[in-house]
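ESCALATION

Customer reports they have been waiting on this structure for their group meeting. Please prioritize. Original submission:
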Amino acid sequence: MLKATEGLEENKAKTDLERFEETNKNLFEILGKLKKDQDGFWWYFYVPVFAALAENNVVRPFSYYISISQGEEVLQWLKKNDEQFQQLVKLISSKKKRHLQKTIRFIHPSTGIPNLVCDKQ
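Update from on-call: job pushed to the front of the queue and completed.
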């Protein structure tokens, strides 16, 4: 998706990181709208977090944080925007606690492989 938006007139002045953030925001918003009609572990465990990133306007710090290996531009942005980054950390921490309360860990009796089961409640 990121590569496809590169040639659009409105994106010519944007950096790769800005387009990456915008792509993430659009994707997370779509996932948030679709989540109520979906079933399965991914939809119960990951999608609520991604949707919350968009709902709480912290997609930008998330996008920069997961791009930290891209170099100095990212590091400078994170230093300059620590308040936004701390909002992301706070949101992720609260989501993690809620998810862990809803997640049951067990060992499959015949394989011995750990499994995770999400309670829909």
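Sent to customer with the following note: Confidence is low (pLDDT under 50) at residues 116-121.
Escalation resolved.
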